[in-house]
Amino acid sequence: MSTRLVRTSAFLTVALAVVTSAPARAALGGDVASVLHDAEALQATHAVTPMVNYDLHEGTTADGLQVREYVDRSGKVFAVTWKGPRSPNVSELLGVHAARYQAAAQAHRSGHHVLSINDPDLVVTAMRLPRGWQGQAYLPAAIPAGVSRSELR
Amino acid sequence: MSKLQAPLRWTAALTLVALLGAALAACGGGGGSSALVSAPPTVINYTPITVNGGPPGVNAINTPYITVTMCVPGTNTCQTIDSVLVDTGSIGFRVLAGALGNGLTSPQLPQVTDSSGDAVVECVQFIDGYSWGPVKAADIKIAGETASNVDIQVIGDPAYPAATLAPAACTSSVNVEEDTVLTFGANAVLGVGNYLQDCNPCLSDGSSYNVCTSSTPTTCQPVAVSAGLVTNPVASFASDNNGVVIQLPTVSTAGAASVSGTLWFGIGTQSNNGLGSATVYQLDPDYGTFVSTFDGQTLTMSFEDSGSNANFFPDPAITACPQSDPFFGFYCPASTVDTSATIQGYAGNSVTVPFTVTDPDSTLSYTAAAAPDLGGPESKVAAQSFDWGLPFFFDRTVFIGFETATIGGVTGPLIAF
Prior knowledge:
The complex is a heterodimer.
Chain A: E1 4-5, H1 9-21, H2 32-41, E2 45-50, E3 55-60, E4 66-71, E5 77-84, H3 90-94, H4 98-107, E6 114-119, E7 122-129, E8 132-138
Antiparallel strand pairs in A: 1-2, 2-3, 3-4, 4-5, 5-8, 6-7, 7-8
Helix pairs in contact in A: 1-2
Chain B: H1 5-26, E1 46-51, E2 65-71, E3 78-87, E4 91-96, E5 119-126, E6 129-142, E7 145-155, H2 162-165, H3 168-171, H4 181-184, E8 188-192, E9 209-212, E10 220-222, E11 243-248, E12 259-265, E13 280-282, E14 290-294, E15 297-304, E16 311-313, E17 337-344, E18 350-357, H5 360-363, E19 375-377, E20 387-388, H6 390-393, E21 396-401, E22 406-407, E23 410-411, E24 414-416
Parallel strand pairs in B: 3-8, 4-7, 15-20, 16-19
Antiparallel strand pairs in B: 1-12, 2-3, 2-6, 4-8, 5-6, 5-9, 6-7, 9-10, 11-12, 11-21, 13-24, 14-15, 14-17, 17-18, 21-24, 22-23
């Protein structure tokens, strides 16, 4: 599996320009520019691995937070996963779906450590571990054909 | 407020429970049984746990509480606080400002400051929101144990309102403030998980520790700390400081309005808190997790958490309660599910743990605060965790060994049961 580093200064300049012009874009359901926005916001390293049916964007911050964004061939993010010593900004990662997470957070009464959304069009599980955080979010209808859901880790 | 009366009644009840807890232990309840016929503990190292729904209006399910005395360091200016959540999934003592004022106020507690005298104020993020408030020094007293002059957090202190002071890095991820007794579900939380600090490393972007100016208008900015200031209070006890033991009784599937158990401090430090026949499971030192296998899934980031009020695990074959249901967020199976999962420690040893999930709407009594068969869903696809919540603790004695401890020849962090 080849890994291609895209963190070049020229590329980042382009990404920043895009971010400036479209700051509201975010990850899940967003496009490639939003992935770069996230990498920038996280001050993360950013690697892209071309998979057979999608591109896997992986960022790791200096403090160890790993965020993976799964981008289909049309450039849309259909899944996001995270794992690390702290929480990512969930609202940014979930993009246009953030409001549903906020609503679920306000409604839920099952403790401070697990939050799940299991809707037909949106699936989210966020966990606060004894030390560290992890979570997954994806859009079931947007998963490209041929992608095993067990890949979304 | 009715707080003055309720704690008085509870104090009497809790004293009875304490005696009962000691008697149970003396009769060989759980892992602390081996040497109980010998001398009594030199320091009283146990306190009663109640699972009773919590503070008025909270109606918490499967939430274990104890009573803690909190004092201005080195003084007799104290307040006894009931409905303190015993949380093995977090670290540190945090009291809701709304629970103070019956003997102790937040302004009476010394403010922790940085070198220039600015107040340290902490943000704590959860998956469902955040808490915000100043870091103060206090003596924390439970049973015969004291954590002297330790850093604690006062959540929701009106002197530092989150609405105007909490930075975006704290609030923007999940913008739900949990700074009142009702939203938090407890008067305070005693975080006694496997670690010594509440974060290590801690972020310096505002989502963790901040400093706020004493001049007006108050402004806050992130501060870098090498490790969390708010620490596991049990680790600061003079003795019995290497872990905790939680024992809860058997509860019928219909649940119970109130059940009583015991929290011991220390593992193998006195005659009443030995491992006995319990097996030790080492945890992943980075995440405090173990591996659970369930239904063909290997869930590598699994954990126990007394602050989770159900067993949360991925099984799409079990019906989740609909949004209109009072138990939305939990499983509502059509028929009783008797199943099991494994727990495998970091060193590789494993055990099969049976558990049951029933429909809370049809099986639980209306007044139930303890519900041993409560389950809750995770998304099956890509799930990595089995969260063994309070149901795991019923009918069991669970040992929580801290990261710096060596217990039964095993280095922490660890659990045993």
